[in-house]
Amino acid sequence: MAVTQVDGVVPHSRHNAKLAQRTAAWKPGILPFLIPFTLLLAFGLWSYSPSRTPLSWALSIVWSLPVVGVLVGIQGAWLIRRRIKRSVNMVPPAPVEQDFLIVLVPTIGRHDTYPALERSVLSYVEHLPEWFPYMRVDVLTEEGCEAAADIDRLATVHPLIRVVTVPKAYATANGTRFKARANHYAHELRIAEGEALDDVWVLHMDDDTGVGPDTSAALAQFINRQRRAGPDEAKHMAQGILTYPRESAVNMFTWLADAVRPADDIARFRALTGMGTPVAGVHGELLVLRASIEATIGWDFGPKAIVEDAQLALTFCRLYPGRSDWFNGRCYGASPATAKDFVKQRDRWAWGLVALCFNRTIPLRYRWFLAICVATWILGPLQHIGAVLLFGWLINDMNTSPVTQSVVILWALNFAYVIWTYWEGLRLNAVASTSGRRKWWEPIVVVALIPVFSVMEGLGGFKGFLRFVRREENKFVVIAKPV
């Protein structure tokens, strides 16, 4: 009987076939980029008026700065399209018979985060054992957390679930705090239990992010492929795609705003992590790492580390160049419940990433790309079209043309890419949803709201930058997790 293949993924049952067929049909679109690019370029060339004012010079720089990341993102999308064309020749996945999988789920253990944790953990024990006969789920929490009783009861639901409790008195050698401290405790525990081996893989997940049948099949295919690879070619780390199903959203506005995140996974992360150099960092969910390699890096990055996943990625670049990959598997998270939480989340990320960009313990050759991306992010409020027009009105200079006409090409490229990320990210989130498709009005609304979303993104980034400049005490803010 013929079955549909998704990047080499063959579903085990009819239950999985619909999702497999849906994801097989998806690939990054070209027209959602080409049409805006053509229109923006034509308008820019038509409306260009020579100007050498300070405003024109400033815009020529800040509106062109994102082009480095944009070109990398375009490369990533192109690599996915090429890989999908070749997927018919890929070896279908099979159960992982020789490797052991540990799913690590750190949680702050609050009552408002527990429902999402339960949903996520139950998805692991439902979907992963089909492809991973040797596995365990470690729920990592702090001694005395408020939802400790609920978490302990969750461990009785399935024999694969184990609760790992970090003692309050535990301290790392470098004084690392927050999630990195908990991850380091789990890393030391694996070493003590003799599990820091080449054939043991650690799948890092967030406590609000679940998996599906497509996730486990794609992950199994990746791990089996590394066993077949030679010692100089096998990968030690890989990242998949984070999506947000519509039914997991409690706020449609923030769900639309988060369309940009899966697009980043199929663009920059696909290009950089997939080519072996995760210099843009990684995100903390659907990150799989060989236990023996994690044992050589650890998570003890010091008391200022609040973006431990990105710091791990940059350290990995230095120690194991060319040994990371990307796989076409999806995990399923939930967007922040409110716009306030959305900004708060971005605030923490920016705070930690700015600090990481100035971290001299990491060679500059691994930091410069991240620094450009972060600079573009935190300058968001200042380069917003509304802010630019307001400033031009105040100084009586409404000419926003660049200093030379050729810059218009870069601007059209950058703005078209932003439209593409929201358009394609929304489509990815819709594919991950029960219906499998966007509602007719969603693409229109998400594009129309890009100026609003960019304000939210930029505000969070700028607030994080200000916290770094003020040298405020680091805080690992955990927002409430939707069910």
UniProtKB/TrEMBL annotation:
InterPro entries: B_mannosylTrfase_Bre-3/Egh (IPR027389), Glyco_trans_2-like (IPR001173)
Coiled coil: none
Glycosyltransferase 2-like domain residues: 201-418
Pfam family, one: Glyco_trans_2_3
Any one GO CC term of the record: cytoplasm
One Gene Ontology MF term: beta-1,4-mannosyltransferase activity
Protein name: Glycosyltransferase, catalytic subunit of cellulose synthase and poly-beta-1,6-N-acetylglucosamine synthase
Superkingdom field: Bacteria
Transmembrane domains' residue ranges: 30-49, 55-80, 368-395, 407-423, 444-466
Entry keywords, A to Z: Membrane, Transferase, Transmembrane, Transmembrane helix
